Amino acid sequence: MRLGDAIDDPHLTIQTSDLSAIAKLEIADCNYVLHAASQASPRFYSVDPVGTLLPNALGTAALLGCLQSSADPRGMLFVSSSEVYGDVPSSRSLHEDAYGVLNPTSIRACYAEGKRFGEALCAAWYHQYQLPTYIVRPFHTYGPGLQENDGRVFADFAFNVVRGENIVMNSDGAARRAFCYVSDVIAGFFTVLLTGKPAVAYNVANPAGELSVYELAQLLVSLYPQKKLSVVRREPSLSGVRSHGISTELLPDTRRLTALGWRAKIDPEQGFRRMIDAY
């Protein structure tokens, strides 16, 4: 025995446990599970990293177990994130197989690491138990339903306009993102769940909705000229990569999803007007 020399030490207690055991959830028999239960706003990452990690890790495992015990399991959709790509070189066509560095000891990484682990669980369950699992990676999704204190730049800017405030930027606004309206994203989710390949990740984004952060601010102000708002830029950022390791250009390759017949229908001008008018 490896601990033979210490087995009789009064300060040592040997206990045998099954650390692969997963908490059981009481869910009625079902065909599909759609798992989007996760804190997505950066405002949570530093104050509740544990609460950000666990739904994507333990929660995903528990839901997979529930669906596995169903009489007729047809699919689990795991809503991952574009943040799983980590720090990738600036790319105008980020394919699902492209990955960059992600520092697991950075508190800000709790969200991306949780999503990576959730994806790995989905792939493992499909490989070992043939449970159909589907993975979607939404990029920058916007629309009615976002909270005023969300903390992401597109939400902050939209609520600035709702409140009649000038948009104040804390960077040069050069970072480019592809913004996708929520109804297009939901259609993409169901397209993957019902017609996609199991255990394969799909980017869900609108490449035609690409804007720099500064262009987004200008667009939102221009939509409501009667409010007479302005965009104020402070000192530009000193690095091409944000401190939490996400590149300044995070632009998606969506060919895998469009091959299933999906197309985004709402452009940023339409979508942000709908969102702001809703509030």
TrEMBL record:
Cofactor(s) listed in the protein's UniProt record: NAD(+)
GO molecular function, one term: NAD+ binding
Gene Ontology BP terms: D-xylose metabolic process
Xref: InterPro entries: Epimerase_deHydtase, NAD(P)-bd_dom_sf, UXS-like
Gene3D superfamilies xref list: NAD(P)-binding Rossmann-like Domain
Keywords, alphabetical: Decarboxylase, Lyase, NAD
Top-level taxon of origin: Bacteria
GO cellular component assignments: cytoplasm
Keyword check for ATP-binding: no
Transmembrane stretches, start-end: none
Cross-referenced Pfam families: Epimerase
Domain NAD-dependent epimerase/dehydratase, residue spans: 16-205
PANTHER family tied to this protein: UDP-GLUCURONATE DECARBOXYLASE, UDP-GLUCURONIC ACID DECARBOXYLASE-RELATED
Protein name in UniProt: NAD-dependent epimerase/dehydratase domain-containing protein
Organism, as annotated: Steroidobacter agaridevorans
